[in-house]
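Good morning,

Attaching, inline, the backbone tokens for the sequence recovery test we're adding to the shared suite. The designed sequence is right after.
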């Protein structure tokens, strides 16, 4: 297949001409970060989809196929792991930024699946600098988790940690998307990686060595497909900024899974916080206008690690069933509990949030009294923000206040005036804790089940 990037002196051309005229007319040219406040699964995909309607570009800035989000359009369900949800808007350019890690098999499957459903992926660009997850990264992720036994992180087994490890270890490790189209280079890099990894796989885990030929054969069709989308996305980003385009920077996972600011070591290997949006896209901090913090009306977590408001009893089970809290990526049941205001307050600060978007408000529709954790007590002191040492977090006792429930369905609400008074009071309290105004509340998975404060 011929490359869609004709060589014009080493400067690859984007797949499509980027049309920013719509936003000029609307006077809405904003660069917005979408970031999760908790431990992921807040419903960022739906918020990105909302913003993508008027966006020229959606750029994913970190993570890989450990993410999973579902967008429901006209009753039709779309599940994504890698492709930004902006792909469902036919004028929106979607970019996998420099800070992401790409599993070629997973991305190729998504592209083929979307195109089979009539969604064109012509507008999908992959940064040449994004690192590649190879099948053996997934194998090592599994072997490492098995070796950790009960003390495991509970990773998604998608090879995220091992791929980012190779990136930070530098030469001769680390394979980037720009290498996918060059068979000789790819062979050289895979050989170098496996030379080291096979020794680790055999010596540390007693597992069979992985064959270079088999790996190359396995990824070849996907590598060929994806390399058609690979370009120097920095040029595209600079061009979008120069033209004052409307840009969404889409985070995956969330604040408390951040490698530096999360509940280490039970975190992912990238930087989901808003600061990571600059690292992962090439957009400078001064170009960012808004940071939309996405917070569920209660709390969930998958995998291991501290979770002060976790409810191991009936309420947790009820939230899980009512909120369909099962992982999009792994199918694992999510741990559930009440809203943690300490997490929310800290996330608003760490991300410099300008707007709060609250998701799954409707899941609380039947609850008579809603506990909200406003501070922690541990080791003789009170914590209003999350302590740096996650071991202290393990000892934290949540201090709750109770807000009245509304016990009225909210799923049909279209505007703030359709919401019951108690639901508005609940959102108000969340806004007060976060110190930022509420911009959206989601009351169901459909696009139209979104209440907006303009
Ligand atoms: P990894 O990112 O697969 O290495 O997993 C590290 C931790 O992050 C584990 O606790 C995972 O369950 C969690 N995690 C990774 N991605 C997501 C996500 O998209 N949603 C929720 N949790 C996630």
């Amino acid at each position: 297949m011929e490359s869609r990037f004709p060589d014009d002196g080493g400067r690859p051309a984007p797949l499509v001409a980027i049309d920013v005229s719509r936003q000029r007319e609307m006077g809405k040219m904003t660069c917005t970060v979408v970031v999760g406040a908790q431990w992921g699964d807040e419903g960022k995909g739906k918020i990105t989809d909302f913003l993508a309607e008027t966006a020229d570009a959606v750029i994913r800035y970190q993570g890989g196929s450990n993410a999973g989000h579902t967008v429901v359009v006209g009753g039709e369900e779309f599940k994504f792991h890698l492709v930004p949800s902006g792909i469902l808007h036919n004028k929106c350019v979607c970019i996998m930024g420099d800070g992401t890690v790409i599993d070629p098999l997973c991305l190729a499957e998504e592209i083929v699946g979307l195109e089979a459903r009539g969604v064109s992926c012509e507008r999908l660009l992959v940064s040449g600098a994004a690192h590649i997850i190879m099948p053996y990264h997934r194998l090592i992720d599994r072997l490492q988790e098995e070796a950790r036994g009960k003390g495991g992180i509970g990773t998604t087994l998608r090879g995220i940690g091992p791929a980012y490890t190779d990136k930070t270890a530098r030469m001769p490790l680390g394979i980037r998307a720009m290498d996918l189209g060059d068979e000789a280079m790819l062979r050289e890099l895979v050989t170098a990686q496996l030379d080291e990894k096979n020794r680790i796989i055999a010596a540390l885990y007693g597992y069979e060595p992985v064959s270079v030929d088999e790996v190359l054969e396995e990824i070849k069709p996907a590598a060929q497909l994806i390399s058609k989308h690979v370009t120097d996305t920095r040029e595209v980003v600079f061009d979008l900024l120069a033209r004052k385009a409307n840009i969404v920077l889409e985070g995956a996972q969330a604040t408390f899974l951040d490698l530096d600011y999360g509940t280490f070591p039970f975190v992912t290997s990238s930087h989901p916080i808003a600061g990571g949006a600059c690292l992962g896209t090439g957009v400078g901090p001064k170009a960012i206008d808004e940071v939309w913090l996405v917070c569920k009306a209660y709390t969930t977590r998958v995998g291991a690690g501290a979770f002060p408001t976790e409810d191991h009893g009936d309420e947790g089970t009820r939230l899980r069933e009512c909120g369909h809290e099962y992982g999009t990526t792994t199918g694992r049941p999510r741990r559930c509990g009440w809203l943690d205001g300490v997490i929310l307050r800290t996330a608003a600060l760490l991300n410099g949030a300008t707007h709060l978007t609250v998701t799954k408000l409707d899941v609380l529709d039947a609850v008579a009294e809603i506990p909200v954790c406003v501070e922690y007590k541990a080791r003789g002191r009170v914590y209003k923000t999350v302590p740096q040492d996650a071991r202290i977090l393990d000892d934290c006792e949540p201090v709750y206040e109770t807000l009245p429930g509304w016990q009225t369905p909210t799923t049909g609400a279209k505007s703030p005036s359709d919401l019951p008074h108690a639901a508005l009071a609940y959102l108000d309290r969340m806004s007060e804790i976060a110190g930022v105004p509420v911009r959206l509340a989601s009351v169901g998975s459909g696009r139209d089940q979104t209440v907006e404060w303009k």
